[in-house]
Write a structure and sequence with these properties.
Blueprint: E1 2-6, H1 10-21, E2 25-29, H2 33-42, E3 44-48, E4 51-55, E5 58-60, E6 71-74, H3 81-88, E7 98-100, H4 107-115, E8 120-125, E9 128-133, E10 136-140, E11 144-148, H5 155-166, E12 171-173, H6 177-198, H7 202-205, H8 209-229, H9 238-246, H10 256-262, H11 273-283, H12 288-304
Parallel strand pairs: 1-2, 1-6, 2-5, 3-10, 6-7, 7-8, 11-12
Antiparallel strand pairs: 3-4, 8-11, 9-10
């Protein structure tokens, strides 16, 4: 199966590399030329459980190389989704499914608007990955779930699950992928903006009870929005979301949103807490805590980008 990864940073390179290692025809596409050049020159240096191996991969920063792929895996930042798909639309086969493994809510809707709803697959991964440098990634395997947005367990989902599992990736088919996307969203609602605004690691956030209380209130708002939207979630309370955010991570761990701000990058706040605010307005649910967290992140971004509005 020819599989193209659009967005081949830490997660895309790791999953794509492991699939390539298993014998699949994988192409990694990323706009960071130095990373692409390193992958092609020396392979992917992948570290798992303190052991590093080199995997031969194919990589490019030319989107037209997508060609007639059997599957597109989308891992670009949410705010690059529309632009990326518009660039590659003419190069992708008319029946090629697009699987989003991105963070937050709304990515699948953007894909549907551009590519057609029938081509969209939703996904969520709990694996962890860190880009150590051009061509070098640290990866921690964990569960990944994929599914049709309407809940059917189709042959194409079963085929993708089989191929990924044959490569050693822990992948399951889900008949409630939207609920699983929400489950991960709730975790990010709790810790992403609180870490990013305060600059605290996960371990330090645990020590500040008032901050935890604020995070719990943000998650409680998100619970009410999910209920109003008719989404079936598995998490039972805000404390569970907080606990899941901390599981298996070093106390020195920093959220990706905090790392983005430290590197002067734009965050994905719009599809995390911002999505809660947007849907809260749609369904008539008040979200003052999430709105405040979003405004704080936006203010930091404004400051970091020279007081320039987008």
């Amino acid at each position: 199966m020819k599989i193209c990864f659009l967005g081949s940073g830490a997660m895309g390179s790791a999953i794509g590399g492991i699939l390539s290692e298993s014998g699949q025809d994988v192409l990694l596409i990323d706009r960071w030329k130095e990373h692409v050049d390193a992958l092609n020159a020396g392979g992917l240096k992948l570290t798992e459980r303190s052991e590093t191996r080199v995997i031969k991969v194919k990589a490019t920063h030319q989107v037209e190389a997508v060609g007639q792929a059997a599957l597109i895996v989308l891992l670009v930042k949410s705010y690059h989704t529309a632009d990326t798909l518009n660039q590659v639309q003419s190069f992708i086969g008319k029946n090629t499914p697009v699987l989003s493994l991105q963070n937050g809510l709304g990515n699948e809707e953007k894909i549907a608007e551009i590519m057609g709803a029938e081509r969209v697959l939703g996904g969520v991964t709990h694996s962890g990955s860190v880009l150590l440098g051009p061509g070098e990634v640290s990866f921690g395997r964990d569960r990944t779930c994929i599914g049709e947005m309407q809940g059917e367990l189709t042959d194409r989902v079963r085929d993708i699950v089989r191929i990924f599992n044959q490569a050693g990736l822990e992948v399951e088919a889900s008949d409630n992928i939207l609920g699983m996307i929400w489950d991960k969203l709730l975790v990010n609602v709790a810790v992403s903006p609180t870490s990013a605004i305060t600059g605290l690691t996960h371990g330090d956030m645990e020590k500040v009870e008032l901050l935890k209380a604020t995070a719990f209130e943000a998650v409680e708002e998100a619970f009410r929005v999910a209920k109003a939207a008719g989404v079936k979630i598995s998490l039972k309370d805000p404390a569970e979301a907080w606990t899941k955010a901390m599981e298996g991570l070093s106390p020195r761990h920093k959220s990706s949103m905090l790392k983005d701000l430290e590197q002067g990058k734009r965050t994905e706040i719009d599809v995390i807490n911002g999505a809660v605010v947007y849907l809260g307005k749609k369904y008539g649910v008040a979200t003052p805590v999430n709105r405040t967290l979003v405004s704080c992140i936006k203010a930091i971004e404004w400051r970091n980008h020279g007081n320039q509005t987008e």
